[in-house]
Amino acid sequence: MTAVDMPADRPANANFSSGPCAKRPGWTPAALSDAPLGRSHRAKVGKAKLKAAIDLTREILGVPDDYRIGIVPASDTGAVEMAMWSLLGERGVDLLAWESFGEGWVTDAVKQLKLKDARVIKAGYGDLPDLSSVDFDRDVVFTWNGTTSGVRVPNGDFIPADRKGLTICDATSAAFAQRLDWPKLDVVTFSWQKVLGGEAAHGMLILSPRAAERLQTYTPPWPMPKIFRMTNGGKIIEGIFVGDTINTPSMLCVEDYIDALNWSKSIGGLDGLVGRADNNLKVIADWVAKTPWVDFLASKPEIRSNTSVCLKVVDPAITSLSDEAQASFAKQLAGMLEKEKVAYDIDAYRDAPSGLRIWCGATIEKSDVEALTKWLDWAFAKAKSEIKA
Asked: What number does CATH give the domain 29-265?
């Protein structure tokens, strides 16, 4: 193959977006045929579907029996906001940020809730902040996996078991692909449209007994929008955590989530899901190791995401260009592959450093990642040759 010859093999599925993510292998609209469309979500059939989604979530993720699981509005964002508005303010809070979504939670805590005792602990894209500096006598808000930086915490060992504060974890691109340390987490949130490739607009909110106790013993000083309220008269509204949702869910989306959960069971549950994502990351890692023009944005192997894999162009001919020209080059690579219909939506997130972001979560086939690497080499060689010309 010469420098600009097109590869022979194409990914069977070109959807490498980091959200909404690719549907499970073999998915067709027929998977939704049992959805109770036109029925009330409060009817027996609707409640049964919602409870099934909660029960399957608990089973596959290994959520402890005494943790509450709720389906909430507005995707992962809604779930995180519900937790922050309902739980923060009882004590000081440490806010960890190393990418744009973590920065968003900092903004909400500091500028919207205007928490007086808020400490921000940051790191740049590609790194984690100093986790040893976190004070767990305070509440802590953090992302498990930085979707826009490709950097994740390696495990939950940095969180003490005897903490006094609550840990609020945005796990939206980690759940179903990475092993969450449940005893170390008091609030966990994620959305359906990430690792399992579900449909958007619904979020999951998981509360530990410690978080539930805070809900019932602490009343925030600010007005609480109805959509965020989880208590009534000092008691938890338990219906939220058995499928009696705050607002009307899409039963079509619920059916799709159940389908993805059942597929997860069919491939070995969490072990199978993590294994698929890890294998996809290994394909990228092996390719990066032998490819001089590209590298991971994540500075160390142990913090590399196996879902939102972020890459940077390190070829000297490109890094010698202006920042604007480097960003343009990376966008050109993504655009070339989209034009050839071999990879959609792989340019870096708008607030992140220029580069590429390739979703490698569990719904992606390893063979498609392998085919994509060849096309990445083709796009780079062609784009670089055009610069020289």
From this structure: 3.40.640.10
